[in-house]
Automatic annotation (TrEMBL):
The keyword Chaperone does not apply. This is OLC1v1019174C1. One of its GO terms (biological process) is methylation. Residues 64-273 form the MPBQ/MBSQ family SAM-binding methyltransferase profile domain. It comes from Oldenlandia corymbosa var. corymbosa. GO terms for cellular component: cytoplasm. SUPFAM superfamilies: S-adenosyl-L-methionine-dependent methyltransferases (SSF53335).
Amino acid sequence: MMSSSLLNGAESLKLTTGSQIFGSELQFSCFPKKGFVNYPKGSKILTLTPKCSLSSSRPVSQPRFIQHKQEAFWFYRFLSIVYDHVINPGHWTEDMRDEALKPAELYSRNLKVVDVGGGTGFTTLGIVKHVDAKNVTILDQSPHQLAKAKQKEPLKECTFIEGDAEDLPFPTDYADRYISAGSIEYWPDPQRGIKEAYRVLRIGGKACLIGPVYPTFWLSRFFADVWMLFPKEEEYIEWFKKAGFKDVELKRIGPKWYRGVRRHGLIMGCSVTGVKRKSGDSPLQLGPKQEDVKKPVNPFVFLMRFILGAMAATYYVLVPIYMWIKDQIVPKGQKGGLTLQFKNLYIS
């Protein structure tokens, strides 16, 4: 798995919006708690004042309670019942979804799209706004999640497949777009999943991966590391670049009322895109899979991990409720309120 060192060849990151540029050296990741440095009116450049180091000692490959395919299967066996009513309202709103899909450039009804880890079809509903449902394939390892997606009228013409994000059942150079939202956090080997994204795309095709961001607040970090994978921004970028993607971009997303996205992290915190530069498989060579899904699981260990993982999940269900209440008490822009905007992160 990757190290937490700096990205090779990438010397700086830029947060952009319109004509303004927010610059920041890559070796600094934690953004200032009090927002951006002020410049005279009319200035085009604002500089972030870093407060702490980009990387910590947390290894990306450390085991987490739900970062395991079999355990995630059972987790979603029960969560699928209330997923659209409990998880989405706080972490994955329609506005966030539509904003996160913009970089995917779904500009034609005829694009062939694969939605990997499509779950109950919430993200797919955003895709079929722009692409004919008959051209969209939803893949997920959970038959219970897929059953929910099949019930949604706009998705009736989609193709539904049970499958593994790290071993996709599609031929090489197959799709125009690869979309995956809220799935990477369960992959035992994220680099392998992104390598597969590269393989199944046609030359010039675009991958759009939407997922969590690693928090900076100590308690949120603890529960994130207990529960599932919350990658850092530079980890997403390095995985894409190692897989062979060019024009890699990272766009921050979050609910309008959720301030301080890096403080508590977000289950849906960024949208990362890259373009396939050459036809064929990814140039990256990997060894055998880390996880053997056919290996028997100790029932006692599974139960303990499931309970602890569910406790961590409960924390992340409560966090957006707390953030919403906070926004009602201290509206954004008032004294004491943190004004952090979500911008695009461009990687040259």
